[in-house]
Specification:
- It is a single chain.
- It is built from 2 helices and 13 strands.
- It has helices at residues 150-153, 159-173, and strands at 5-6, 10-12, 20-29, 44-54, 60-64, 69-73, 78-79, 81-88, 90-95, 99-109, 117-125, 128-139, 145-146.
- The strands form 2 sheets. Strands 1, 5, 6, 7, 9, 11, 12 and 13 form an 8-stranded mixed sheet that branches. The chain has a 5-stranded antiparallel sheet with strand order 2-3-4-10-8, with no helix packed on it.
- The protein is globular, with a radius of gyration of 18 Å.
- This is DUF4352 domain-containing protein.
């Protein structure tokens, strides 16, 4: 069984896509730039970024567009509303070596379900499909990423911060 990535982690692509890596990052509450979709009434908008990096020696034609995402929220894994009108995709872009391209995706879900967000992506290069990869995390009460690296999400609420807080509490309590 594959283990999901934590939001902010890079995932190396396998097989014929060696040299490409992808990550989901920048998950945060955000209103869409061109206004809310009527179908998202009563839901809370959030956005995330998908960055593809080419570390190979040859260019790849990449696609990160609608139909390649599945976003699930909450403990029951309900589907989030994906706002295609406000999202910015990567469609047929020639990604040269040592370059990156980023898509910005807007989605909406109920406020109570944002603590658990799972984002699955299947990257397409030229006319070939890569494996599907999953990122897990969420958005906390104050809008910070849960399960992401604090160096990547900028909130100070990541795993490193949690470990540091735990060690500090243990040091203050002294030996048992």
């Amino acid at each position: 069984m594959r283990v999901p990535n934590v939001i902010g982690d890079w995932q190396e692509c396998d097989g014929g896509h060696a040299g490409l890596r992808v990550r989901v990052h920048g998950v945060e509450r955000a209103e869409p730039p061109r206004g809310r979709d009527d179908a998202a009434e009563g839901l809370v908008y959030f956005r995330f970024r998908v960055t593809v990096e080419n570390r190979a020696g040859t260019p790849f034609g990449i696609h990160v567009e609608d139909g390649q995402f599945d976003v699930r929220t909450g403990p029951d894994g309900e589907s989030a509303f994906l706002d295609w009108r406000n999202s910015q995709f990567i469609e047929g872009f020639d990604l040269y070596p040592l370059r990156r391209a980023t898509a910005v995706i807007y989605a909406a879900a109920s406020d109570t379900s944002l603590a658990r967000v799972d984002i699955q992506i299947q990257l397409r290069t030229d006319e070939e499909w890569a494996d599907r990869y999953l990122w897990a995390g969420g958005i906390g009460v104050h809008g910070g990423v849960i399960g992401g690296d604090s160096a990547l999400d900028g909130t100070g609420e990541g795993l490193a911060c949690q470990v540091s807080s735990f060690l500090q509490r243990e040091a203050e309590q002294g030996p048992a």
